Every structure is written in structure tokens, then in C-alpha cells.
Amino acid sequence: MLLKLNKIKNISISAFSQLMLLMSAPVISRLYSTEQVGIYASILAVGTVIGLNSSLKLDIALISESSDDSHETMAVALFLGVIISIIVGSIWGLTQFSELSSVICLILLSISISLFQNVTYYLTRLDKINYLSKVRVVRSMFISVGQIGFGLYFTTFIILIMSMVIGNVIPIIKQLKFEIVRLDNIVNVLKRNLSYIKYAIPQGLLNSLTMNLPIIFLSISGEFVLAGYYLMAERLLRTPVNFINTSIRQIFLSDFSKSINKFKCYLSWLIPLILLSLLFYLFMYKFSTDIIVFILGSQWRMSAEIVMVLLPWITLSMIQVPATGVLIYLRKMKIYSFVELVDFIIKASLLFFFIDPDDFLSGLGIYSLVGLITYVVIILMSSIIVNKHVSNK
């Protein structure tokens, strides 16, 4: 009983952290122009891809490592995250952006995302879920206060980016213990985790690219205003979903790793999430336009149209959280990577060869349908794998 109450408490705290970001949206949408939000979106999309993958997925490998090995892996993950973020961020920024400030923002954002990702998984490895939930609240508070407070004086994308950088770093600063990393440390860690990361790296890269591909496509096409509409639509839609995709993933992994009957544990998460996602879909289908106009203002009505297109795909992402968690914990990254590769190829082909930016919504509908089918495949595949894992034991 105490365990269930603790789980509910952690989920509630994480949900509140996402609610804080949602509460800042009405102010941000009225302070910043659609174009500035669009430029912010383009840097955020690329920074997310770089930051989530710059540690070569050693952050996730921490979950199933022994206590003796995890300390060294964490040190190497932090080191690689910073170095690769600087290198890749510089290359992308200098080739895509005309202003040095945009390049610097991209590098700093990538580093901050990488640091936050590494620390959150390390805390999960140590089973410090209560502390992790509080970290997420502090992060949301710094981001919201920074974007609104500084935005009262400077309404540029730089404020939006730097507020996120500060929000990512400040809550975890006590956990950041950089150590001297030698070449042999890097070789040992990579060799020890090679069987996992050789599939996890392409899977993670493809997954993060796929999630951010529409904004990357729009920014390359120069459609920053449309990218702004897309970001606000996705933020409002994902905010109530993201506490599932972030905090609950860590809680599920901790719960699943300690459970004796893993299939029962899997179903105990999957079934309630199916019911929750159905309720969420029906609610948003009915009221999304009214909600967006009320929260963001009538000038953001275009975002409501984008929400309706994305709704089936993003709603289903709630259900796939325990499914992807199973694949991560059981290290079934080879088959996961293959599914992500097929999904990415189809979506990238749609965006860059068949979708006209002037008719973006029609193409986005097909894009969303492909994503929905991919989630269904992952859920079915994970259910079979975890059931087979239990049967073999």
C-alpha cells in the first residue's frame, strides 16, 4: 500500500512539473511573436536530437549496469555528452545559422539536455525516484520563470533558449561530478556496453529525429512562423502526455526491474494507460480548439488545426511507454532499432519528397498515421517479448 501511495505521489509531482510549463504558455504566446517562437523551435528540435544522443546512450545503459560499473559509466557519459554536443552543435549551427548567437544557443542547449538526461537516468539507477520528481519540478519552475520574467524585457528566442539551459542545469548541479576521464576509461565503458549501444545509438537517434523532424523540415524550408504554430500545438498536446513519457518511464523501469512477475507488472501499467489515453483523446477531440484559443489567444488558432492532426499519434505515445521500457530493460534494441529505422525512412521520405510546405497539414496527417502504426507495432512486439521472457524462466 505504501509503495502504491509513493508511486502516486511521484507521478503527481511530475505531472505538476509539466503543468507549470503549460501555465506559462498563455504569457509566452502573448509576449513572443510567432516567428521568434519558430526560431526557438528550430534550435530546440536540433538541440534535443544532439543532447539526447551525445552520450552514445550510455545514460540508458546505466539502468541495467552493476553498481561497481555504473560510476565509471556515468563519468564517461557526462564527458562524451559535453564533447560531442560541442562538436556536432558547432557543425550544424555554423552550416545552418547565419548568426553566431544561434550557434552558441544550440551548443549550450545540447549540453544542458545531455547533462540532465544523464543525471536523471543515474538517479533512476540509484532508485532516487522521489528526488528525481522534485528535480523535474525545479526544472520547470526555472524554465517558466525565466521565459516569462526575462521575456518582459527582451522578447527574443535567446531568452527562451537560455531559460531552458538554466532550467536543465540548476536542479542537477549538485549531482554533476565531473572527473578526469582517460582514454582507457572510455574504451572500457564502450566495450562493456557495446552489445547494447550498437543498437541503442541508431534507435535513439532515429527516435529523436523522428519526433523533431517536422520542425527541422519547416526550419530548413524557412517556414519559421509555421514552426512556431507547430511547437505551441505540440507543447499543449504533449504537456499532459509528457509526464507519462518522462517521469513514469523512470518509475516503470524501477518497478519493472524489481518485480518478480514481469508480465503482470507490464500489464498493471499498460491497461490503465490504455483507458487514460482513450479519455484524453475524447476530451481533446471535443475541446482542443476552445482550449487553444483560450490559452494562447485567437492569433494561434492555426495551432488548433495542427493539434487535431497530431492527436491520434501523440495520444498513443502514452500507451507505448511501458512497451519501450521493456525493450530498454531487456536490451532488445536490435529489433527496436529496425522498427525505428523503417518508421524514420517513411516519415523522412514523406516530409522531404512528398509534402509541400504550402499544404503542410495534409502531409502531416499521413505523417501522424505512420507514427500511430509504429506505436501499435511496438506495443504488440513488447507484449510478445515480455511474455516470452517470463515463459522462458
Give a structural overview.
- The chain has 393 residues and is an all-alpha fold.
- It has one domain (2-392).
- 84% of the residues lie in helices and 0% in strands.
- The protein has helices at 2-31, 34-53, 58-61, 67-96, 100-125, 129-149, 157-169, 183-192, 194-220, 224-258, 262-296, 301-316, 320-329, 333-354, 360-392.
- The protein is globular and about 55 Å long.
- The two termini are 28 Å apart.
- The mean pLDDT is 83.
- It is found in: Cell membrane.
- The chain crosses the membrane at residues 39-63, 75-94, 100-124, 145-173, 213-232, 266-286, 306-330, 337-355, 361-386.
- Its main location: membrane.
Count all strands and give the number.
0
- How far apart lie the N and C ends? 28 Å
- What fraction strand? under 5%
Tally of alpha and pi helices: 15
Mean pLDDT: 83
Helix proportion range: over 70%
- Tell me about the biggest sheet? none
- Rg over CA atoms, rounded to whole Å, is 20 Å
Shape: globular
Content-based structural category: mainly alpha
What are the segments in which pLDDT stays under 50 over at least 5 consecutive residues? Answer: none
Tell me the domain tally: 1
Protein name: Oligosaccharide flippase family protein
Membrane topology: Multi-pass membrane protein
Subcellular location: Cell membrane
Keywords: Cell membrane, Membrane, Transmembrane, Transmembrane helix
